[in-house]
Design brief:
Protein name: WD40 repeat-like protein
InterPro entries: CTLH_C, LisH, WD40/YVTN_repeat-like_dom_sf, WD40_repeat_CS, WD40_repeat_dom_sf, WD40_rpt, WD_repeat-ST_regulator
Low-confidence stretches: 1-28, 32-61, 450-475, 632-671
Shape: globular
Strand order of the largest sheet: 29-30-31-4-32
Pfam families: LisH_WDR26, WD40
Number of strands: 33
Number of helices: 12
Radius of gyration: 33 Å
Keywords: Repeat, WD repeat
Distance between the termini: 59 Å
Strand content: 25-35%
């Protein structure tokens, strides 16, 4: 990492004329102190007018005697060092403005927050007195020579940038050649710094250097960074006590099994440990939706959380409307019945603006207008086998479909093909896109005989970057999770697993993939490094496609259906099974979906032909006890009217579904 002399000379062949350096306007190395601003907090070396001596602090003729306590901890039953504790209290008092109280505590305890040398060093950095800051740095007990060099470099880098910002190019060149280069800086970094001399305007400099200038917070950030090189016992890190308290609150939040509040909620009290009960957790069925005449296989909420789309074996998809804001839990109604499908409906996906719903039935994709129920377009020529998954892109520019025919197809928003990826090496059973729009995660069954025949002129996708450390099981046969780069279409990672993989969801931070795995386990994988981060057990899954999802505020919970007819809920970080929720009838609970705008509501669907809406018990009052919506008695005056079924008339829909082929309970991989 260090430069040899020849490298430095090649980068800095020109020698600046230091005689042209502008004289310091305020005695601070030629760099203005930004009109007296200190660019952060500072501590006075004095104690707000008070002075200390051997007899304690003297104030208004009164002395404060030093208190001598036995031992070195804050109490007999504690391991917390008293000196460290008191020094942090002194720092906190100063931070909140109680200067006199801090000075009194210093006198009474005999401990000082920091030495005079540290206080001066801190102030030199904040005031931009660079030469004195570098001199003081040598007296702050930095033991490692490398650390001292790194700290000196950071100080001189700030000095160099401030000279450039002030338009003092000659002085900046002098710092670059005579103060930065001798520190054996990484040559690439030194090249980058030298290129900043070409910036014609301060705004351009700040943008290219990713630096907010002398008048911003750069000096305070520099001071915070220097804490990494100076022993913390010598210079206490900024706001250390609040940092420790915040860490304790975070720990309590992570340990609180039923915590379901948004991250920005800050109503934690310091007087007691944080604890949530399950009273605010959605464990009660408040609504049962009963229009489907056969097994319900999939569900998905609209992005605004006001509509729920359901897919059924009865060859229909239904869009349900949640009640108006503030209305009771039972104020649900069927908005549209989309029954123009030849086969059972398997997958659903809402467009970014919720104006279009995609449905899949066998190898056919349909695009529906979610306001009118009109089928905009039918896509049926690209896939040769069942389309198992379809997902809109994060930017709304189009969508991607994947199927058991091993194909991945990228579509434009209007339903035209943008790119056919060709054939993958797995029969894809499910697929998800990372919210950051960079990767595609697919799960499926390995293809027994590799097929290298191009599809419609495109080349087959090859698996690359396989990490043997995270490849599970024997090298032949089985199932895989494959992670693709969405831009290059290349496989970044392939992880082999035993057992069928039926569902995949990606966390909101794009780091984790949740995978339903038969038999009877759900895996949580870190898709950045391919490591197994957790697993959740208790539910039953052996023959059918079962789907799980993240739920709650910040994805705190894992929720899944099960072949035993129950809904299972786990705490994501600890893996603790929190709830087993009964209620559905005979058969599997096939899918679950958490409302994206209401942390206290999720939906589940089942082989019993129903969809259940789950909410917190406190919402299930006598007025909003379980409410059934069955669709009977609904009229269709010209296809219009609040709460009326739109699309195919319901009587016709019943007639068409009576002749539907009966395939037995549950959606299985072979269907």
């Amino acid at each position: 990492m260090r430069l040899v002399q020849s490298d430095r000379d090649s980068i800095l062949s020109a020698s600046p004329d230091v005689s042209d350096e502008a004289g310091p306007s305020n005695g601070h190395d030629g760099v203005a102190s930004t009109n007296g601003r200190t660019n952060g907090h500072s501590y006075s070396a004095l104690t707000n007018g008070a002075s200390t001596g051997a007899g304690g602090l003297s104030k208004n003729g009164k002395g404060i005697a030093r208190v001598n306590l036995p031992g070195t901890t804050i109490s007999e039953d504690s391991s917390i060092d008293r000196e460290e504790f008191v020094r942090l209290v002194i720092q906190s008092l100063r931070d909140v403005g109680y200067i006199e109280s801090a000075a009194t505590l210093e006198a009474e305890s005999g401990y000082t927050m920091e030495t005079l040398e540290v206080t001066q060093f801190r102030q030199y950095i904040l005031d931009g007195v660079w030469s004195k800051a570098e001199t003081a740095l040598r007296h702050l007990y930095i033991e490692e020579p490398e650390s001292l060099l790194d700290a000196r470099f950071l100080i001189n880098e700030q000095k160099y940038l401030e000279f450039l910002e002030a338009g003092k190019t000659t002085a900046a060149l002098h710092v670059l050649r005579n103060e930065l280069a001798p520190l054996n800086v990484d040559p690439d970094h030194l090249h980058t710094l030298s290129s900043l001399i070409m910036c014609s305007e301060p705004e351009d400099l700040r943008r290219r250097a990713d630096w907010d200038g002398a008048a911003g917070l750069s000096r305070q950030r520099l001071l915070n960074t220097l804490h990494n090189y100076i022993p913390s016992s010598v210079m206490i890190p900024q706001k250390r006590f609040p940092t420790l308290i915040q860490q304790a609150l975070e720990y309590q939040r992570h340990q609180c099994l039923y915590h379901n509040l948004p991250p920005d909620v800050t109503n934690f009290s310091l007087y007691s440990d944080h604890f949530c009960t399950n009273g605010e957790f959605p464990t009660t069925t408040t609504t049962i939706l009963e229009i489907h005449r056969d097994e319900v296989w999939n569900i998905e909420w609209s992005h605004d959380g006001q509509y729920l789309a359901t897919a059924s074996k009865d060859k229909s998809a239904i869009i349900w409307r949640v009640g108006d804001s503030g209305s009771s839990s039972g104020d649900w109604s069927p908005h549209l019945v989309l029954s123009d499908h030849q086969y059972a409906v398997g997958a659903l996906s809402w467009s970014l603006d919720d104006s279009v719903l995609l449905t899949t039935a066998d190898q056919i994709i349909k695009m529906w207008n979610t306001k009118t129920g009109v089928c905009i377009r039918t896509l049926e020529e690209r896939h040769q086998e069942t389309v198992s998954s379809i997902v809109w892109l994060a930017d709304g520019s189009g969508f991607i479909s994947a199927g058991l025919d091993r194909k991945i197809i990228h579509w434009n928003a209007d339903g035209t093909v943008k790119q056919d990826w060709g054939l993958t090496t797995i029969r894809i059973t499910d697929m998800a896109l990372t919210p950051d729009g960079t990767r595609l995660v697919a799960v499926g069954m390995e293809h027994a005989t590799p097929d290298v025949t191009p599809s419609r002129g495109s080349q087959p996708v090859e698996l690359v970057g396989v990490n043997p450390v995270v490849t599970l099981g024997s090298p032949k046969g089985g199932n895989r999770m494959v992670i693709f780069d969405l831009t290059s279409k290349h496989a970044l990672m392939s992880i082999r697993m035993e057992g069928e993989l039926t569902s995949v969801k990606v966390s909101q931070n794009s780091q984790y993939a949740l995978i339903n795995h038969a038999p009877d386990v759900i895996y949580l994988y870190d898709i950045r490094n391919g490591r197994l981060s957790g697993k959740y057990i208790g539910q039953q899954q052996g023959r059918h496609i079962i789907r799980s999802c993240f739920g709650g505020a910040n994805g705190t919970f894992i929720i899944s259906g099960s072949e035993d007819g129950n809904v299972y809920v786990w705490h994501r970080e600890t893996g603790t099974l929190l709830e087993v929720l009964p209620g559905h009838g005979e058969g599997s609970v096939n899918a679950v979906s958490w409302n994206p705008t209401n942390n206290r509501m999720f939906a589940s669907c089942s082989d019993d032909c129903t969809i259940r809406i789950w909410e917190a018990p406190e919402l299930a009052t006598l007025e909003t006890r379980t409410h059934r919506v069955d669709g009977f008695g609904v009229t269709i005056p010209n296809g219009k009217g609040k709460g009326k079924l739109r699309g195919q008339p319901w009587d016709d829909h019943i007639d068409s579904t009576l002749s539907a082929e009966v395939r037995g309970p549950g959606l299985s991989l072979g269907q």
